[in-house]
Specification:
The chain has 6 helices and 2 strands. By secondary structure, it is mostly helical. The protein folds into 2 domains: 48 residues, no CATH class; 41 residues, no CATH class. The chain has a two-stranded antiparallel ribbon. Helix 4 packs across helix 6. The longest helix has 15 residues. The protein is elongated, with a radius of gyration of 26 Å.
């Protein structure tokens, strides 16, 4: 936190950065640093080298998010604060709370 405040007070001051390659050599000039980062990320994200992943593993993968349940929607509706302004949908929280059962079933129908 102190360094962030100090940087803010002093303004922007460019710093000299150094990057090491695989051999341990240091680079200071911008072009060499960019080349090293490009090589690093091209090796990191090179999907064509990965041969262990099979098509069946990709198709049988579990979904990233679990299925939404009714009680989770009801809890979220109960947590809404009634005295707040409406959001981007222009529906006040009091209205959502008043129709919680209908809204809950409609939300679950579209998810």
């Amino acid at each position: 936190m102190y360094s962030g405040i100090n940087d803010f007070k002093n303004g922007y001051q460019p710093r000299i950065h150094r990057v090491k390659d695989e051999k341990g050599d240091l680079f200071r000039d911008c072009y060499s640093i960019l080349v090293q980062w490009r090589n690093h990320f091209s090796q990191l994200f090179n999907v064509h080298r990965v041969s262990e992943v099979r098509q069946t593993e990709i198709l049988t993968a579990e979904p990233l998010e679990p299925e939404l349940r009714a009680f989770e929607v009801q809890i979220a509706i109960e947590k809404l604060k009634g005295h707040k302004l409406s959001g981007s949908n222009q529906i006040p929280a009091k209205m959502i709370k008043a129709g919680r059962r209908t809204i809950c079933s409609e939300i679950l129908m579209f998810v």
